[in-house]
Amino acid sequence: MEALRTKAKELLAQGEVQVVIGYEAGTAGVRRPCFVRTAESAIRLVWDTNCIGNLAGYLTRPEIKRFGKPAIVANNAVLRSLLQLVAERQLQQDAVLALAVAQDGVVTELPTAQAVEDYLAISPGGLSAADREKMEHLAQLSREERWTFWQRELERCIKCYACRSSCPMCYCGHCTMDCNRPQWVSVPSHALGNLEYHTVRAMHLAGRCVQCGECGRACPVGIPIHLLTCYAEESVHRQFGQQAGTRAKLDYALGAFRPDDKESFIR
Amino acid sequence: MSRIGVFVCHCGENIGSTVDCQEVAARCKQMPGVVHSEDYKYMCSDPGQSMIKQAIEEQGLDGVVVAACSPRMHEPTFRRAVSEAGLNPYLCEMANLREHCSWVHEETDSTTDKATDLVHLQVEKVKRNKPLQPIQVPITKTALVIGGGVAGIQAALDIADSDRKVILLERSPSLGGHMAQLSETFPTLDCSQCILTPKMVEAARHPNITLMTYSELEHLEGFIGNFKATIRKRARKIDEKLCTGCGLCLQKCPTRKISDGFNEGLGMRRAIYVPFPQAVPNTPVIDIQNCSHFRKKKCDRCVKACPTDAIRFEQQDEWITVDVGAIVLATGFKIMRSDQFPEYGYGAYPDIIDGLQFERLASASGPTQGVIKRPSDGKEPETIVFLACAGSRDAAKGVKYCSKICCMYTAKHAMLYKHKAPHGKAYVFYMDIRAAGKNYDEFVRRAIEEDGVKYIRGRVSRIYEEDGKLIVKGADTLLGGRPVEIKADMVVLATAVQPNDGQIDLARKIHVGCDEYGFFAEAHPKLRPVETNTAGIYLAGACQSPRDIPETVAQAGGAAAKVVALFSRDRLTREPLVAEVNRRPSPIYSDCVGCFLCETACPYQAIGQETVTDRDGKLYKTMAKINPGLCQGCGTCVATCRTKAIDLHGYSNEQIYAEIMSL
Amino acid sequence: MRMGYYPGCSLLGSAREFNESVRAVCEAIDLTLEEVPDWNCCGASSAHVLNHDLALALPARILAQAEAAGLEEILAPCAACFNRLASTRATLAADPAKRQEIVELIELPYSGRVRVLNVLEVLERYRDRIEAKTVNAFRYKVACYYGCLLVRPPDVVKFDRPENPQSMDRLLATVGAKPIDWACKTECCGASFSVTRTDLVAQLGGRIVADATRRNAAAIVVACPMCQSNLDMRRPEINRQLQQEQRIPVLFITQALGLAMGIEAHRLGLQRHLVPVELPEPELEVVGDDDDEDD
Amino acid sequence: MAKPFEPKITAFVCNWCTYAGADLTGTSRIKYQPNIRIIRLPCTGRIDFMLLQKAFARGADGIIVSGCHPNDCHYSSGNYHARRRWMVFNDLMEFMGVDGRRVTFSWVSAAEGTKWAALVNEVTDAVRQLGPYTEYQRLIGAGVA
Lengths: 267, 663, 295, 145
Prior knowledge:
The complex is a heterotetramer. Chain A has helices at residues 2-14, 62-65, 76-87, 113-122, 129-140, 143-154, 162-166, 191-205, 214-218, 226-240, and strands at residues 19-25, 31-36, 45-46, 70-74, 97-101, 107-110. Chain A is an alpha/beta fold. Chain A has two domains: 2-122, no CATH class; 129-255, no CATH class. In chain A, strands 1, 2, 3, 4, 5 and 6 form a six-stranded mixed beta sheet that branches. In chain A, helix 3 (76-87) links the parallel strand 4 (70-74) and strand 5. Chain A starts with a helix and ends in a 27-residue tail after the last helix. The mean pLDDT of chain A is 90. Chain B has 17 helices and 36 strands. Helix content of chain B is 27%, strand content 26%. By secondary structure, chain B is α/β, with parallel strands linked by helices. Chain B has a five-stranded parallel beta sheet. By secondary structure, chain D is an alpha/beta fold. A four-stranded parallel beta sheet of chain D has the order 2-1-3-4, with helices on both faces. In chain D, helix 3 (78-96) links the parallel strand 3 (62-67) and strand 4 (103-107). In chain D, helix 1 crosses helix 4 (113-130). Chain D is globular, with a radius of gyration of 15 Å. The relative contact order of chain D is 0.24. The model of chain D has no long low-confidence stretch (mean pLDDT 91). Chains in contact: A-B, A-D, B-C, B-D.
């Protein structure tokens, strides 16, 4: 933690970055995002094992961009989101200084996308064991059981869109949900509207989701919706090989094709 | 409130027999937005069309639905009728009551219900149609012909004769291509130089043709009518304007032992050379790999010999960018090197040669002045065996397709050999003789009957050397597959015709498709053989598939006609059914967030970038922009776009949504 | 490295030296051969004359046994066995109904997982080890004789080029030999007519031996016991046919490689040959030969 | 007695191949069941997965999505992109419990009139057997479509 603070103080003092996005101690041990803009307030930065939130979402917000060049305290998920955002041209290569903090607290400065790629190559990361176990359980169920499972879960959705705003890949100014001519997705948070919204979001994240699980954590009513986007991403990985958040060069599976893609259900 | 007219057609009794047209027309009157609805026996007839026009004028309709046959049949007819009545043609839609309803269902209520639903679907769609104007695209009236063989020369001359500018691009130092290497040409045995050289000179001298030899296309961008081509003009190390082509430098050059590509490795040339005596342009080229001035920095014999001081050692390659409106691909072919299958001994034994090398031996300007001699010891061969289908029509050996010209040039080779050495024995191993052109079969019969060439129907399994003779082991299938062994002095392999070197890279540079063998893919094998799927790029000659000279010249004329037709109009009009990225007022400028996931989805590379900068030039936003000239309206980008920023005219999101909701 | 091994009847009978040399060479390149348990005759050239199902069942049973023993690949040095096993595997893979029939016949599970390799394929795979172990280079001009079963039918056997195979030439060049280009690389030696029509074998074999001798090859190298016996055992008939004493020896590829790797002649079974294996002084080294050395 | 259940089938087809194939079914007068309603699109590449959602939301019991065979696409790669989209959407529907048996993806060329008729009949019979898609339609009752 100390190394992080000294690094942040040094960067802010030299003016290399104008803001350091990191975690600070919230109430009852919770870690919440904080935006350190002066060398003195770098003391607020903390780092421990439950700094797991994905801060990359803030990088595309205009309010944060206005501060100037940011440095970001980056766990694995943040680094993967960084690469995917660079690939989708939402971030310039050198617009962000990533401070990768490994489990043991060692801070490594990663100024360029290539550096991030190499760093990630040694410690890729992915779904947590608990989520993996849930996915396995769902896969065992029959179709009808999965339908009832998701209907009972999505019933609780109140369309607060917390999942959308917490997801770093949901940076679209005008989302499909905001379309009303035509009204692609029914607006009210009833069963149909919820099913359509979450199906659309999963499909829009297929091949782009870095599986950080932030949307699941952000959901106020505790629906495991991160399983949907993670499943869509794994479907793309299994069938086409691409993996979101591994390369800074765009390799969007649904934007490309191979003449010999194998499938067995088209007649 | 929209004012839509519905016109239900009986199509004689094709529709009327199973669909109650009056009922459908009556039901349509109740649909919201429909102000006029009637049915008629033949809507596509003159009275039918005038009914529509009359209704448009009288009722002030702003949308028309014709419920009749398939739109693939009469959509243009009804859209023209509608536009003659002053309504934008893209506000007229057709409901397919014939192929998709009356012809395929029994005469029941559900069929009439289905017919009503189909009309209702189009009514909902028409309400969301927008008036569209055809896209106007300017055209640069200059053509670029890539390839200086007979195909390229013919295409260039035909286009230039229609008073259009042409740039004729050729990779090697001279025009002529493979035809210049031939001795005589079938079926008339007239010498290829005599019929080609005049055309080469005419192309070089034509006021409308700019000749660029020893140059290659580096990069191409743009679209039909508005291509921008970057051409790399390789340095000849000689100033073309000063050089008179006297040839003194050629005699003085000390480096003599370089294998001559034009003579297919049978002759030698010098470091400074002209490919063949009748080369056009007649300016020599310095081969910097072998010229000792460039290798050891000491020899300037040619500089001293040159009367007009035209040698420029320090000359560098130039990159020239030209604007062109259309491109004709005439890059020709190459003969397959057959060392891939050692069983024929090509490469192991010097006296086993391929078709082009035999042409050089038979050619008067060739290394042996037209006398057929064995490359190994220069003796005149008494027995020559010709192998047809050496690599063609056999997936294991080389390629699956038939190379079309080998049967004819093999018969010609055998005939030329018998004319030059009447006592010599010529054998031809063949599978089937394909001589389908004009006077072709008579030519082959002449070779067999008058010149005594012995044709053996069977394939050769292996050739090996024994006591100085080449033993050709084959089978004669007409005599019950009896094994045949011929002791030959020389063997000529008619190997496969393949796309020229670098053709696949060129295809990638200009985004033209290739087939599995690397030949350019034509737009439609039967109906559009000289066009490609990329608008504005045309094909001529063997680059599209193996082809002989008569067909090549005919196809070159065809490609030229397409270019001249394109250039006959000032502006190019295209169906306005193209995609468009929406625009919003500032500060958003567009729903597009510039992720460009759609860019790779477009098969026509029609999606480019548009940037918005604030007053002092700082980049504010980058957005996608679709080039209406290139977009063909497939809509893949529309479905790929997450923010629904792109929409397709004619099949917009609103229209499709309305259709679904009308069911 | 562990690999299945199917010697077949001839390698335990008339071609014992082929078996000994294969085992010796494999031991030298530390490739352990594990014989297929309770293997049976592969039906060679006689089975498919009698009954088609028998011709499939015999090899299928061998493959099934190999499968049961958990082997992935089996080496079948004899060209006839290799051909039978390979074509059976291909036929059963293409025709599930027939496979079911055969499985019922042999009463053993058969999935077709086990791959069949001939001796050249295996040796080619370990060429670098053979090169490393070469002690006295096999400096002779050799005529590589492939016969017809090793490379045909091409789409089933899928090994080398059927008309002009090069794999044995490459192997021998690795140990310093100079393979010559000659007429009868893949000509038939008369195969199983050896007993019924010995005159045919004398004629066909004679052509092969004569051509190799005329191009002054020091030895004919083969990879099939049938060819070896026709060119070696039937040499008296060949000599009578050619009215000339032909002394050119007929070696197995594994014997030639064995000699190059310094394995003594006795362990390679050279003493079992009918035409005595007397290789002349390796003349390539002494005189500056006109055709250049293979690097 | 209530009318026997007749499934409502919606079809999204590409203009150059399957629509033309359906035309050929018509010109060859091959009969098939009238439950289907065809929506024409320029290419399968244009078919957004949300169209299928809206079709179900509009009470369709079965959906057919069909276009040109791979390598036949008039726009050269529209169907390839569509295939990848369907592969992922098919997977996701299965994961979310949407009844995949009611959605049929196929390639029908402009020359396969008989295949189109057979496909429509087969799908209509299959969906008739599955009965109305009450699971999904119950949601419509709950929400304003």
